[in-house]
Specification:
B: mainly alpha; 60% helix; 0% strand
Chain lengths: 502, 124
């Protein structure tokens, strides 16, 4: 019966979104229902994390149609980890949004759209089928387009255009790639593709397909030449939604890169792994340089997303089981830290009424708790031990040194130092220096207290990842083991009985 | 048949890309429509040469059948593409209303990027 639960991470947010739509204008009741649903999603995802550790993946053949022919949902340990991270970020940003905006001023469509976004994200994590992945991406992207423009003002709206246009091109290529995959392998099921591709070693068509897929997923993840859409569009979002985007959306791209290159396509595509490594190195460096050049909090943080994506993809580019473990660990660390930093940024806007670093200031005196939260997360992002970011960077760099990839290692270390530098820029501008001119710290606006509380909660999670790194690392290495164990995946998916129907 | 289709797909992708790279909103819009149809046609072509095959209908004429799966796939893709294009039309219209221009280049002229103007005073 466990198999049937695999559909729940998709269905629960879908029902929640529809209920929220039907309930109409924002009320307290609606907030409670959506909040309860988000908590339920988190508990369910955590249950999957525990039940898939050291066990075979949960496979659900939808409608009882057997694996290579019907659509399957597969929840293995990696998918379960991603589901729980998504649910945690979803819950935290939801509560943060509740704290930031009074019920009456909330846009009536925000909560339903966020839940539709969760449907797309969760379906991307659980799907075991390439075309279904395309559909999941579209569900996610259409919700994200709508959320991006929902509350944007007249001036910012144009920034939605590059985001939309580039993702639309990506979708066309993805569709084409799905068609090509069907003609090459005669199937779209991940397990069946993995099975057949092992018998087609040296087929150049697989390389071409892998290149197109890499282009599509690199675009979603925000890798080097394809990241222009990200740093200008994220700052136009309201801060709770921006925190959700920053935490989850690009990481869906990273997850899919992990899934497709780690498990589905044959491991012999060395050329593409090296290419991914170089793109990752360029992303790390250029992302952090972009961050150094910005002068407002969310702009700096948006560029940092890119830089950090570089580390994760470098883990994929090195392509050993250990480096995939490092990449998964980095994803776990990054989602929590990045979402928290965006929420801190949102709190700064509430307190200072702006996030222009030339005008903000005085927050260390007014709200030391927020200062500590920011400092812990910023140092974690830069990779100071024993915070969670240190372990992620350490694992990847050790693997890079082992393989003698000196340039990548050097770039990774340099990006770390520049990260610290740009984080200090925010620290000086917003916390340490006094506010300039008209800007006052508005602590009488009581919203910052619950907002800070949410940030503190997320920081505790992040500290637990850093201090309990051994547990998280075990989980990540189990996920990587399941990912690279193709035979087990293929046999679990293809020989699964349609357990949903007896 | 498959060669003509391949040529058409190539033409559609090429012309669509060229249109998307133009500045005018209308051309960009039609460029995206071409791109999405190029991808649809490519997927359709993956059911291989239909010559001499019949449609997969119960009680049909029998004999070799066309692979129905790509048709089912593009049915989904067409619906998604339609929704996305409808959104694009509205987005471009709203940008036109807000910024008084129908040219992508003018859109980002003057301001280097929105990142330069930080999130200003909150209106709330």
């Amino acid at each position: 019966m466990m198999a049937n639960w695999a559909v729940a991470p998709v269905v629960i947010p879908l029902i929640t979104a529809l209920v929220a739509l039907v309930l109409g204008p924002p009320t307290r009741l609606r907030r409670w229902i959506v909040g309860f649903s988000a908590a339920l999603q988190l508990m369910l995802a955590l249950a999957f994390v525990f039940s898939t550790y050291g066990a075979e993946a949960v496979v659900l053949a939808l409608g009882g149609w057997m694996a290579p022919f019907g659509i399957v949902l597969v929840v293995d340990h990696l998918a379960a980890i991603m589901l729980s991270l998504g649910a945690l970020t979803g819950l935290a940003t939801l509560l943060f949004g509740y704290a930031e905006i009074p019920v009456g001023r909330e846009h009536p469509l925000r909560l339903p759209l966020v839940q539709f976004l969760a449907v797309g994200i969760n379906l991307s994590f659980t799907t075991g089928d390439l075309f279904n992945l395309f559909v999941a991406f579209e569900v996610m992207l259409i919700s994200s387009y709508a959320l991006l423009t929902l509350e944007a003002d007249d001036w910012d709206i144009k920034q939605a255009f590059p985001y939309f246009a580039l993702n639309l091109v990506g979708s066309s290529f993805f569709l084409a790639a799905a068609g090509l995959a069907y003609s090459i392998f005669g199937t779209l099921n991940f397990a069946e593709i993995a099975l057949r591709s092992t018998q087609m070693v040296g087929d150049e068509r697989i390389t071409v397909l892998a290149l197109i897929l890499m282009l599509v997923f690199a675009l979603k993840a925000g890798l080097f030449p394809l990241y222009y859409w990200l740093p200008n569009s994220y700052p136009i979002l309201p801060s709770p939604v921006a925190a959700l985007y920053a935490g989850m959306l690009t990481k869906v791209g990273v997850y899919v890169l992990l899934r497709v290159f780690g498990q589905v396509l044959p491991p012999s595509l060395d050329m593409i792994h090296v290419l991914l490594g170089w793109m990752a190195a360029a992303t790390m460096l250029l992302g952090v340089l972009g961050a150094v050049s910005r002068n407002f909090t969310r702009g700096i943080l948006s560029w940092h997303i890119l830089s950090q994506i570089g580390y994760m993809v470098l883990g994929i580019g090195l392509f050993t089981q250990w480096s995939l473990t490092a990449a998964i660990f980095y994803v776990i660390h990054h989602i929590i830290v990045k979402a928290t930093l965006f929420m801190v940024g949102g709190t700064i806007v509430v307190l200072n009424r702006t996030d222009d670093l030339a005008k903000t200031g005085g927050l260390w005196v007014a709200t030391p708790v927020l200062g500590v939260v920011f400092l812990l997360q910023a140092l974690s992002l830069a990779g100071i031990p024993p915070l969670s970011g240190f372990w992620g960077k350490y694992l990847i760099i050790v693997e890079g040194v082992k393989q003698g990839a000196w340039i990548w290692v050097a770039v990774a270390l340099m990006a770390g130092i520049l990260t610290l530098f740009s984080m200090l820029k925010i620290w000086n501008g917003a916390f340490w220096n006094d506010a300039e001119g008209q800007t006052k710290v508005r602590t009488q606006d009581g919203r910052w207290r619950p907002m800070t509380a949410v940030c503190v909660g997320m920081t505790v999670v992040s500290l637990m990842i850093g201090l309990g790194a051994e547990v998280v690392l075990k989980s990540a290495s189990e996920a990587a083991r399941q990912l690279t164990d193709r035979e087990a995946y293929i046999s679990t998916v293809l020989q699964s009985n349609p357990r949903g129907v007896e | 048949m498959i060669w003509e289709t391949a040529l058409l797909v190539g033409l559609l992708f090429g012309f669509g890309t060229w249109m998307v790279l133009q500045g005018s909103f209308v051309r960009i819009l039609f460029g995206f429509i071409l791109l999405s149809n190029a991808a649809n046609l490519l997927v359709l072509a993956m059911s291989s040469n239909p010559a001499g095959k019949s449609a997969p209908i119960v009680g049909g004429p029998g004999g070799p059948l066309v692979d129905p799966l790509p048709q089912a796939l593009i049915l989904t893709a067409i619906v998604i593409g339609f929704g996305v294009i409808a959104y694009l039309v509205l987005l471009l219209y709203r940008i036109f209303l807000d910024q008084r221009t129908t040219h992508a280049r003018e859109l980002f002229e003057g301001t280097q990027s929105a990142s330069e103007s930080s999130v200003g005073e909150e209106q709330r």
